[in-house]
Write a structure and sequence with these properties.
2 strands, rod-shaped, 2 helices, single chain, mainly alpha
Length: about 130
């Protein structure tokens, strides 16, 4: 004897869907803060590296010419840098705070700092790096 097939479509119940959504939400609540923290950590590492590279280029410029550059673009023009460094905190290559040397006869760019407001993860302000 053949049993009659039911015309019922099988699917997920509301409870099953809610349990899956709760599991996904709890996994996201763990992963999201770690993701944003890793982005911030990488931005700070990039900023530190760009500052170190640019400061090294300024020192090489001074060693070669006996004076500091008059503007950051001089480092690119004279091929000490391929391009102006990117500040990932500010999101720009043009918003650097330039510190002149004590003797302005030696040029205008002795050091540079980030124009970003706020503090890094270590508590020091970005503009003092």
């Amino acid at each position: 004897m053949v049993k009659p097939m039911r015309n019922r479509i099988r699917g997920f119940t509301l409870i099953e869907l809610l349990v899956v959504m709760a599991i996904i939400a709890s996994l996201l609540s763990i992963a999201t803060p770690r993701y944003f923290e890793s982005i911030r950590r990488s931005e700070e590492a990039t900023l530190k590296q760009n500052l170190a590279t640019t400061r090294e280029a300024i020192d090489k410029y001074y060693a070669d010419s006996g004076r500091y550059p008059d503007k950051l673009d001089d480092l690119v023009t004279k091929r000490y840098l391929r391009a102006l460094p990117f500040d990932p905190i500010v999101g720009s290559t043009n918003d650097w705070v330039v510190a002149p040397p004590q003797d302005l006869e030696l040029g205008r760019v002795y050091d540079l700092h980030s124009a970003a407001e706020g503090n890094g993860r270590d508590g020091t302000p970005y503009n003092t790096w």
